[in-house]
Amino acid sequence: MEYNPLRYFWIAHYGNGEALPQFDPEDGHENFFRDIDQKRLVKFGWYPFMEGLKKIIPSLVTIDPSLRPIEISLVRNQDLIAFRRNGIVKFDAHLCGNCGFLWQQMTAPTDARIPFSSKWFFEKILIDGKEQTFQWGICPRCGTHNGLLCPKCGKHKNKYGRCSSCGDAVINEKCIKCGKDQLGPKIDFIYRCPECGLDLPDKVSRPYLERRMTEYVLGWKQLIAGRSQKVLIWIHEDGSISIESEGHLHSAT
Fold this sequence. Notes:
By secondary structure, this protein is mainly beta. About 0% of the residues lie in helices and about 45% in strands. The strands form 5 sheets. A 5-stranded antiparallel beta sheet has the order 5-16-17-18-19, with no helix packed on it. A 4-stranded antiparallel beta sheet has the order 2-1-3-4, with no helix packed on it.
């Protein structure tokens, strides 16, 4: 099973100046949340890993200099909330067949899981007497993109089933090269210009990917006017945070 490296570890701070870190800086052994003395706790935080700690702990970790510590101070009658949440995010991506670059095509970087691009190639095509516009993601590294028109003669390329015997195009259930019958649904296809016969495969494919993600949560709960209230700070892997209060989630910097 793929393991998602840790980006933060916790430290519990007590009123007398002592602290309990998740990972001991001397020998790297792990302390657990249940080991925290909640009655003496005055501050708690998630902290990015430093190079020295990474060398001695057994867990897989990631060093990211752009991350900053996120911590809270607790007052009387506030109970700490802290945990990690792991999940799998699935998303569409673009893979350039020319240079091998992998990216997400999106208008804005919101929720981008990998490098993203907002550059598009717009292609206007006349279909049944009506002009239609198609848009294709452009590789941000080399500029490669897909298209429907033949670059040689400008005709609209056609989609044909691929012969299971010789690999050429199938038209009307018969291979145009070897002549063998090709009945039933097709699972592989050829894109070819009907005018000049040029094969025009897609230069950019659309893989469906998944990525393991970890969110680090920090907050507190307390009884106010007989009602239990809580505030949660959701720390994302890129260091951005969202604050949840009374069931409402707000982005923060």
